[in-house]
Amino acid sequence: MHGSSTDISGFLGGYYLFLAAMNAVMAFHVWHNRHRVGEAIFWIVVFFGLMAAAASSLGHSPPGLPEGLRNAVNYATGPVIYSVGTTALLVLAFVLRKFLVQPRVAWILLNVSLVLMGLSMVDPNFAAIVTKPDNVPIVGLVFLLGFFTWLATAQAVKNDERLKQGLEPLEKLDNEKVLVWPDLVYTELICMVALTAFLLIWAISLQAPLEEPASRVKTPNPSKAPWYFLGLQEMLVYYDPWMAGVVLPSLVLVGLAAIPFLDFNKKGNGYYTIDERKFSYLIFQFGFLEMWVTLIILGTFFRGPNWNIFGPFEFWDPHKVLALNNVDLSQYFWIYGMGEALPKAPPGSSLVWEILYILKREWLGIALLIGYFVALPPLMAVTVFRSFFVKMGFVRFMLMANLLLFMAALPLKMVLRWVWNLKYIVSIPEYFLNF
Amino acid sequence: MIRESQVWKSIFRHPMPQDRRNRIVVMLTNFFLHLHPVSVKKQGIALSYTWCMGGVTFFLFLVETVTGVLLMFYYRPTLEWAYNDILSLRDVTSLGILRELHRWGAHAMVITVWLHMYRVFLTGSYKPPREFNWVVGVILLLLTLLLSFTGYLLPWDQLAIWAITVGSNMARATPVLGHEGPGQQLLNLQGIDMITNASDARFALLGERFVGEGTLNRFYILHCIAIPLAVSLLLAIHFWRVRKDGGISGPL
Lengths: 435, 252
Known about the structure:
Chain A has 435 residues and is mostly helical.
């Protein structure tokens, strides 16, 4: 799979053969075990379609997406579409979860996404990014996360249905105890053998990347952090490094560690459920799938030279120029609003005067931040989150409210940036204090 | 013959675990197996429930340890040799997939840690009495990322130093302790800045003002000794607490 795009058709041939085999097994399964002949015929048709794709791939003309469609996708790719789109997809998946968890629907979605992946691989720009050795695990991560989210949701939907009828969750039905030898030890052994085989195959078929020797004078464009930190690097677009690189990652860890002490809901302990713990479920999924994983995907596959956003089929042109004129809130207020210059202490004034002038210049942003982080939590406590406040007590509630507000601040800042080109709400570059 | 020998019997005190009694005894008398209880709830070990991701993560940690030790035989963390050693590891050394196993294992480990935590969250298994073990897990997540991050530098190619440069530049902006961080001016002694680019948080991380040989040495030691030791200790606590906090998770 590594190397130039010339051998991609061979890889795609194998890829489609694998997909075809997958569907053949599925057809056999629904015919033999479920006795659904019509559905089996459908998967056989899919099987033949995939075999045809495999044949033409092996004949060095793999099927691809039409150029018009690829151009349209590139054209539509932008931060707003990407963020709104992924959020909308996740919300939709949540709302339609009862429909989506049906094995049949999931199987169709899996097929569609794998075929789309195959069709896109023909595009040299797409293939160049996806087959970069260090990016391969992220492709794997996307599919693994899709699978496990489906698996968990399917069990949660079943349990929620049972709980609604007053039954126990499925996990509670089987109270039988088994001996660890052989039941668990053998599972572990099989897992280890399978994993070893998997790692060996991966290691043999994909060489670890090794670029030119390190050179401090040659800066690659783009310079990217390791993939699992790309969400943090993406935050650098919206926050200063002290926030994106230090404060927010620390808060992520603190927030994760605080979860068991903030979640006062006794239900949903030890089994899959969504309805019994909707609030914590939604907050976690928003934080993990939207704020962590989709930002990593954005940073890996869509951020190119100069950290510009590129479409999935777009050439990473380092000369692509995007007009960016970001404006601070204080500039909005004083220059555009009041028609004055930014307040500035006269030269030679004392430190106290300088700080007073800075406070005058930034008063609006500071007031907004105080309102957001100081005034909003008590307001939440007496309105929407009243019952939370009563159950959690002052300290726990304030911690939760502030963590939630910090989490919500990122999408808020993103929106402010895209819609009004807002750079900083409070901008005090004199003291490296920008927010 | 062998099983009747004194040597065999000195290692394995009991016959093969083929009947109920010996299957119980084996769990109690074998050092490696005694991490487990003797019996578990059948539901608790169902693959669709656990995803096996905690175990897979631990196994990957072992893979990383073994391949890592082997890689240390071939690798010298100096500007003169680091890159060349990796090159010859690829081109000259027999069984040249050692680095591949190590690197892909590392990527996989980051992913499996996430999936393990994802499962623990979705089953609510962090709830009492397992709060503390979740916190230990969060620290292990951080250490896994740091292990991967420190290892990223060692091949000493363009990918390595620039990823570490981008990643560690943020430490420059640490509040109070970074030389470009807010509150940096607070620490000064009679007008002399205490926090400069040669004394701030980033310098402590890199051992230099930029990613250089000092950094390579520091990251090498962190990667091969300091962080693995910390991980091992926390893993022991993590496993021990699984047993003490009510065993493998399941509905109460």
